[in-house]
Amino acid sequence: MSERTDREAGSDFMPKFDDKGLLTAVVVDHATQAVLMVGFMDAEALAATRETGLAHFHSRSRGKLWQKGETSGHVLRVERIFVDCDQDALVLSCTPAGPTCHTGAPSCFYRELVGDVLQPVKT
After folding, report:
1. Which of 17-26, 81-90, 92-101, 114-123 has the lowest mean pLDDT?
2. What are the boundaries of each domain within the chain?
3. Which DSSP state fits 30?
4. Fewer CB atoms inside 10 Å of the end CB: C or N, the chain?
5. Alpha-carbon dihedral of residues 102, 98, 78, 7, nearest 10 degrees?
6. Rounded distance between C-alpha atoms, residue 70 and residue 78, angstroms
């Protein structure tokens, strides 16, 4: 089998990081499946997440590892990790310990584009 076939059809976890060493991680609420946030993981963040059960990401702005909620206490407990077909993106199904967004909103996706205007998402 080729590496592509192994990655797409095999059972081995073979994360495919981009040229910056990152892969996309979409976080959804384990109970509701609502999208909470999108982050980026490097090998270190992925390993820390798997080891601790708490979501870790690579901060592109700070250039370092960070645990979601490390200062606020609003951690994301990882319940399941889903891997896409070519293993370059993950969905983390998480139980949040408070608001996910740094603004205090439950989700970073609290606005909807309606025409050319951002409107608050109605829950």
Report:
1. 114-123
2. 3-120
3. T
4. C
5. -30
6. 15
d(CA 100, CA 106): 5
Structure-block tokens of residue 91: 């969905």
Which residues are registered as beta bridge partners of 110?
A: none
**Per DSSP, what are the bridge partners of residue 66?**
57
- At 18, phi and psi to the nearest 5? -75, -175
Residue 89 pairs with which residues in a beta bridge? 24
CATH class of 3-120: alpha beta
Q: What are the structure tokens assigned to 102, written together? A: 């740094």
Residue 7: which H helix or E strand, with range? helix 3-9
Nearest alpha-carbon partner for 15 in 38, 49, 63: 49
Q: Provide the 8-state DSSP code for 121.
A: P
In this prediction, residues 13-29 reach a mean pLDDT of 96
Q: Identify the residue whose tokens are 């319940």.
A: 79
Q: Which of 69, 88, 91, 70 is nearest to 80 (CA)?
A: 91
Query: How does residue 22 score in pLDDT terms, banded at 50, 70 and 90?
Result: very high
Q: Give the contacts of 93 (CB within 8 A, at least 6 positions apart).
A: 28, 29, 30, 33, 78, 79, 80, 81, 82
